[in-house]
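As a representative case, we now present a protein record of this kind.
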Amino acid sequence: MMEAIGKWRLISPFFIILILHCIAILLFTRGFLLTRTELSTFSTCSDISNSPCNNPNLNDQNQNDSRVCWTKPAVDRVVIIVLDALRFDFLASSSFFEGEKKPWMDKLQILQKLASDEKSSAKIFKALADPPTTSLQRLKGLTTGGLPTFVDVGNSFGAPAIIEDNLIHQLVQNRKRVLMMGDDTWVQLFPDQFGKSYPYPSFNVKDLHTVDDGCVHHLIPSLYEDDWDVLIAHFLGVDHAGHIFGVDSTPMIEKLEQYNVILEKVVEVLKNQSGPGGLHENTFFMVMGDHGQTLNGDHGGGTAEEVETSLFAMSLKNPPASIPSALDTASCILDSNGKKACASTIQQLDFAATVTALLGIPFPYGSIGRVNPELYGLSSGTWNRPVISASNYKQSDLKKWMQNYANVLCVNSWQVKRYIDAYSAASVIGFSLEDLRHVADMYDQAQNNWSQRSENFSLCGNEIPNESCDASLTILQGQIDAYSNFLASVAELARSKWTEFDLKMMGVGLGIFVLSLFVHTVAIRRSDKLCQTSCPSNGDCHISLRVVSAIFLVAIRACSFLSNSYILTEGKVASFLLGTTGILNLRYSLVKKETLIEAVAFLLLNFVLRFTTEVGLSKQEGLSAFMNLYPLRTLAIDHEHPVLAFVSDIVPMLTLILLSYLLVKSTADNRCSSVLKYVYNTGAILSYTLIALHWALESNLLALPLVLKHVDRDYVPRMIYAIGLGLLALSALTHFFKKETSNYTESVLTKTIGVLSACSSTVILLLGRQGPLIALACITGGWCITRFGQLEVKTKNGIGVFTADPLPVTQWSLFAVCLFFSTGHWCAFDGLRYGAAFIGFDEFNLIRQAILLTIDTFGVSLILPILGLPLLVVLQNPYSQGTGRTQGRGIFFVKLSQVFLMYGLITAMTTMLTVICVTIQRRHLMVWGLFAPKFVFDVVGLLLTDVIICLISLYYFCELKMAPSRSGYQMSKKMSN
């Protein structure tokens, strides 16, 4: 009974800490990532009767028009083609961008040609998206006209239906038939809303063609049909090509060229049927992106490359006259052909309001966007007058357009104001009274001006301009400016304060976090008392200095999270701190004249990790192409040279051979469980061989036998996964049910090597060809750290020093952080390598792909380091000296539990500082672009750390079975107390 109590007394703190962390994170997250209140109110046509925007002139014109709801419809049909991840420089002329023309520029020539043609009613826009720039949030923002909150990112792999008012709902409610094809996210967001739909699975990023081919198959035939009013075709090829190959790649260029051909056919069909009485006489055509992407194909954050996307819009009627210059944001240059190329700017927030105004249906209730004048003015049908050319454009026509647009903005502003009032009334926190008062004052001022203008305004002459007409134009422009300023103010207010932070819940979560740290500290001190440490005073002083050094390093790294600059360079900070410990170890080695080689090797390894971290940061900043090419150019080496490509293929395979040798070498002197050792080694070596085969199958340079060329490339990764799971299952079953062994240190060593060899193959495979080199770096760094710990123990003669040394544990943690950044990861959703989730699989499965993505992201930064923590204890101390066998066993496992507690405490402390940081910076400009992603990555990493420690504690501590001797009884009694 005492034996069981002793074992569970050591294990129980891990589970208590896990529970506390789960509760703390749940409460804090509910307070910090609480979404805005989604109102269940929907706009209806009858609501307009409550609007003060009763323009008699407009009403007289529209009284017999059954189509009129809130605004007079300008178009009858809309074709929306969404090209996922369409960067601005994919569409805009290369003349807009400084420097050398990039290979991906000027590929969509049909759209550029239409926009530069004076006879065409077409424009190119730079569309600015609001972060987060994942597809689900952008589609939600485009259709609701609101600002999706950060927490919705978690739904990107399983999009929930949108329950608030939106563009698709308004289309359906107002008898507009909607046809959708392409990305199946639309069907998940709007189930049962489409008259006809042709969805295709969207999350297999390796598949560049299925979704696009499906769109092409249905798009052109549908343009000849009259059974729809709004057609949506969502292509995914560019997004997937970016994720897998990057922007500067052949597949990306091929995709853009394919889109140019498709769009040329679409434009041809639309133009052929745009004559009087034609099917597309009054059709509005748009090609747009939902977000941009970095040069590496990533998106999700708030960088310029990610938020800047493109929008092309064209009316099939003759070109309308120019809008007032005050409303025109276009910037124009001459392209390489001497033609005038222009591009305007639009907020994606304005998309829903503008489209609903064009179609004459109610604005979505939660829309806070403005009807964009340039996009709205492209359709000459707005004024229901004969089509005229720009040269015949009279001032009275300009006045009619401005009068109509001012009325639309009046309705637009009224809708936004009533929504803000309803939101503040329904929301627990809402906006501050000062903000609401400012918004109300701006609206009242604009509305008073509108009322006076409606009463006193008289039309100018239809033919001859006069001074009264000039004055009325000035009044109209002032009215438009007043409404525009009001709408811009509301949008800015929403961007800065949209999320409702529940400070009370956040405070409770933070308090439980502090409690978990207290439990951590108490558990570590308790293990000290269990060991009955008795050190000489000098030894105590030396250990105290090492404890202070470890705490100091952890505190510096944790406090750095209070600065957004240090969060951006977290990898550099960790590398600097790790290098600092390496210099201290080098000095100590020089004094003791031991482990000098290890100290030098550790510093060199840290230098290499620092360099690869720089490469990772350059990738994050979209400069990977430069980093890849510049060193080669310096050495006058062509990066596409066959010899260099062959070396990049063969070096990882040679490294796998070295890893196999090191595995066999590490277990050669281990006499414990020879059969299991043989199984572990055989399984790991077989996995490494299969990894090499998988890469050889993907390589075009390595000559393989003809029979191997026909091997399904998905089978090999699946075999590797199966071998890893099999080794883990065998190890767990064997060690849970095996009999007690006297050589417990070798037994734990066998377990550690077995579980590392079982997991390492999957991690290496998912990391790609850098995997073997990273694994070799793990082994080298781990060996150096354990050797430093051995030197410290040796200095104490191995007697009496039973408490775990915190400095090697701190080095182990910093080393793991450096590995995370050196593998090209960073704490942002655009830092996730989605392609790794599909290695071995083509079809999408949420749980399976989430597991693979987690292993790829945290494999070398959490999973392998935590599984290897027992090496810090096993390789440092011979426990047979000075104590009995049973007492030595107990002390060994107490120290092992202390190492786990220390590592968990380091992770918890850094995470708690991240929590404090996001609490302080919750109103910071970068809260959603930087601090919130860092928070998500850290809390997920902390929970994963706790879960792994709990599981491996059950795995390792089954060895803790004390003999019923006196010393064993006393040790068990201490553990129980």
Remarks:
- The CA atoms of residues 637 and 682 lie 40 Å apart.
- The mean pLDDT is 79.
- The longest strand covers residues 121-128.
- The two ends are 14 Å apart (CA to CA).
